[in-house]
């Protein structure tokens, strides 16, 4: 679409594309608000994948067997790959990856609250796979139909890989549940710590979500935060029963009238506090990312020098 048309025609074309459920592509004119929203969401998502390598990465050297180590290494590498596709998707909107990384390590852009909690035992690796990747899939499958083409397409591959991650987590937990009493206790204790933070991954309640209405209108988001949170609760309960664990919520019960499980109140003060940087591991996660960025400076310089030489 040529940028020489009057802005109102470009705007009309953009709205009509969304209306017809077609994809917006990098060549298309978009309103500034749409560009900013997409960069914000894609960058936060990319940062989450990259920071999200740390909690599980913590267990690579201490995995209990060669098989578990190989699986965990592959999973953590997948997360790095997801971050890279997403930074590339953000680049199609004019965002510069180095600038996005600067914003992350200087606290100007967010990443998912979930990665600010510690991984205390190996059962946490299983619970992250089961619940955290499970929540990620629930949130991201609808994003495969997001209106921005490069983001929606990246999401297809990411979801396939997340699905493998979820299964490996569930299989790990199943194995531990068939083990000793101590192992079963480790799993239950890890579930108790990760359940509520997993529900927070879906974002604030709809009434307090400033971005949802516009993102739904632009078909960036296909469901609201509360709809997806409910879907996740509903799908997790039979899985917990199959595993033989419980969730730390006395208010969880089937509501036949609604056709959904009711659940207790999420501690939104804790969520806000984590977003402000005061979660148990925020400082450690960002410091680690900053150190990795500084330690990798020579690689980026060498790669640029090599590219310049080849180009000349
Ligand atoms: N943490 O108005 P809304 C993964 C922010 S999965 C931190 O509702 P929106 C896989 C929000 O950005 C995790 N901040 O916002 C993996 C906004 O702040 P802003 C990543 C949060 O965008 C597994 C403000 O609160 N997944 O990495 C959170 O409409 C295992 C108001 O919120 C994605 O990013 C939160 N939980 O909806 C990796 C999915 N929730 O920007 C390794 C794509 C909200 O105005 C290991 N993103 N905020 O300053 C989305 O679907 C949406 O962006 C939401 C938030 C649903 C997260």
UniProtKB/TrEMBL annotation:
Family annotation (InterPro entries): Aromatic_CoA_ox/epox, Ferritin-like, Ferritin-like_SF, PaaA, PaaA_PaaC
Cellular component terms (Gene Ontology): cytosol
Listed Gene3D superfamilies: 1.20.1260.10
An annotated GO BP: phenylacetate catabolic process
Single GO molecular function: phenylacetyl-CoA 1,2-epoxidase activity
Top-level taxon of the source organism: Bacteria
Enzyme Commission code(s) on record: 1.14.13.149
Enzyme class, UniProt record, top EC level: oxidoreductase
A Pfam family this chain is assigned to: PaaA_PaaC
Region Disordered: start-end pairs: 292-312
Keyword terms of this UniProt record: Oxidoreductase
Protein name: 1,2-phenylacetyl-CoA epoxidase, subunit A
Primary gene name: paaA
């Amino acid at each position: 679409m040529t940028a020489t048309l009057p802005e109102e025609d470009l705007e009309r074309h953009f709205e009509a594309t969304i209306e017809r459920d077609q994809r917006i592509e990098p060549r298309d004119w978009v309103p500034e608000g749409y560009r900013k929203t997409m960069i914000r969401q894609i960058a936060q998502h990319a940062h989450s994948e990259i920071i999200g390598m740390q909690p599980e990465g913590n267990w690579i050297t201490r995995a209990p067997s060669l098989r578990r180590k190989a699986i965990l290494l592959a999973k953590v590498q997948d997360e790095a790959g997801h971050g890279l596709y997403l930074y590339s998707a953000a680049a199609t909107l004019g965002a510069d990856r180095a600038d996005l990384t600067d914003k992350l390590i200087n606290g100007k852009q967010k990443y998912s609250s979930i990665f600010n909690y510690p991984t205390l035992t190996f059962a946490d690796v299983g619970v992250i796979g089961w619940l955290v990747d499970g929540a990620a899939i629930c949130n991201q499958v609808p994003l495969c139909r997001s209106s921005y083409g490069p983001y929606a397409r990246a999401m297809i591959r990411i979801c396939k890989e997340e699905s493998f991650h979820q299964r490996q987590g569930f299989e790990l937990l199943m194995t531990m549940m068939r083990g000793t009493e101590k192992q079963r206790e480790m799993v239950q204790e890890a579930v108790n710590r990760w359940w509520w933070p997993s529900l927070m991954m879906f974002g604030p309640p709809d009434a307090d979500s400033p971005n949802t209405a516009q993102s739904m209108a632009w078909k960036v988001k296909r469901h609201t935060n509360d709809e997806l949170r409910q879907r996740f609760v509903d799908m997790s309960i039979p899985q917990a029963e199959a595993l033989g664990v419980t969730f730390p919520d006395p208010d969880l019960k089937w509501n036949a009238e609604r056709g959904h499980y009711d659940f207790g109140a999420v501690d939104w003060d804790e969520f806000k506090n984590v977003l402000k940087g005061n979660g148990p591991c925020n400082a450690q996660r960002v410091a680690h990312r900053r150190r990795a960025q500084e330690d990798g400076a020579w690689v980026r310089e060498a790669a640029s020098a090599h590219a310049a030489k080849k180009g000349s």
